[in-house]
Design a protein that fits this description.
By secondary structure, this protein is an alpha+beta fold. The protein contains 12 helices and 9 strands.
């Protein structure tokens, strides 16, 4: 399936990265200044902070940023300072519930790891403490609220793509709309994420016993699936379709699990297979070969969402993103006219 990748203006990309990384632009540090900004209070932006933002962008874009690019990153930092001060002036706040909801969405995007695993990922990837991470989420939400309050109509009034735009996009990218090989299976599952060593050992013993019952004929696979309704120790049921070769799936479940499942034939029941989530016994219910998709084909078997729906959504999201970029620029330009800003461009060279 096609993944619609939108190339963003460096300044806008930097604006949202500034809002999501550790550290505070308000920290007064012994550092060479690159800008001094004042809307309601004076804030010094130092070279050290700017260099960190540049490094993050260079890693994401996989290229070295030029001096002009650095100026755009600095402009994004100035924009963050201005918007946060303006939001505070206008008494725009976010609740802890809103912060928790934003964090939950990020966890879901990463495959719903346990809270402990998610915190470890955040600390490893960003270098922030959990409290710093929550603080950055709060800042991002405040900025979004301020932009929507000032320019919400610009973002809300984005038109839906036309049928001609949808068809043109499909025809230009037709070979990229494809389903990989897939299998669908029912499984008996013991979840061991975040479990103690004792609980993992207990789960292994229980699924070993189930596997012996199936292989000896004392119980059928389906009987054990049905009993899961009344047994809180394990779960069972239809997993849905598992695609082949998708890195996100492999990272979530583990390559050995995916490879083991794809070696099975329809109606074949596996032995015990371990994934990154726990222990499974699997029975294959369907196999699908790779397939190029037509405009009105569903993205996945049994789904109602078609290629047409996906293209429409991607084009609309792109238009919304472009509107958001314009809104950010207009908001920041307006605040710049109200603020005192001194730039030290000589300190952008290193």
């Amino acid at each position: 399936m096609i993944q619609c990748i939108l190339r963003k203006n460096i300044a806008v990309l930097a604006f949202f990265i500034v809002a999501m990384v550790g550290g505070s632009l308000y920290a007064q540090v012994l550092d060479m200044p690159v800008a001094v900004v004042r809307l309601t209070e004076t804030v010094n932006i130092g070279q050290r902070e700017l260099r960190r933002q540049v490094q993050i962008l260079e890693q994401q874009l996989q290229q070295t940023l030029s001096l002009e690019d650095r100026k755009e990153v600095l402009d994004a930092q100035v924009g963050e300072v201005l918007i946060l001060q303006a939001a505070a002036r206008d008494n725009i706040r976010v609740s802890q519930t809103e912060i928790d909801q934003a964090i939950a969405q990020q966890r879901e995007q990463l495959g719903s790891p346990s809270e402990a695993q998610f915190r470890t990922q955040i600390e490893t990837q960003t270098g922030m403490t959990w409290q710093q991470y929550q603080d950055q989420i709060r800042k991002r939400l405040i900025q979004e609220k301020y932009i929507v309050e000032k320019k919400g109509a610009m973002i809300r009034n984005v038109p839906q793509p036309s049928e001609a735009e949808i068809r043109d996009t499909y025809e230009e990218n037709a070979t990229q709309f494809a389903n990989p090989a897939m299998v669908r299976f029912t499984h008996i599952f013991f979840d061991t994420r975040g479990a103690s060593s004792e609980r993992r050992a207990e789960a292994r013993q229980q699924i070993d016993d189930m596997n012996r019952r199936i292989t000896s004929g004392r119980d059928t696979f389906q009987e054990l699936v049905n009993r899961a309704v009344d047994d809180p120790k394990y779960s069972a049921g239809d997993f849905g379709y598992l695609p082949r070769g998708e890195q996100q799936v492999i990272s979530a479940l583990g390559r050995s699990f995916v490879d083991s499942v794809f070696r099975l034939e329809v109606d074949q029941t596996s032995g015990i297979i371990e994934s990154n989530y726990g222990y499974h016994i699997v029975r294959i219910t369907d196999r699908r070969s790779p397939k190029l998709l037509g405009l009105d084909d569903p993205l996945l078997p049994g789904q109602n969402i078609t290629v047409r729906d996906q293209i429409r959504s991607a084009l609309f999201n792109r238009s919304q993103q472009e509107a958001l970029q314009r809104a950010v620029r207009e908001v920041v330009d307006d605040l710049k006219r109200q603020a005192e800003i001194t730039l030290y461009e000589q300190n952008l060279r290193w």
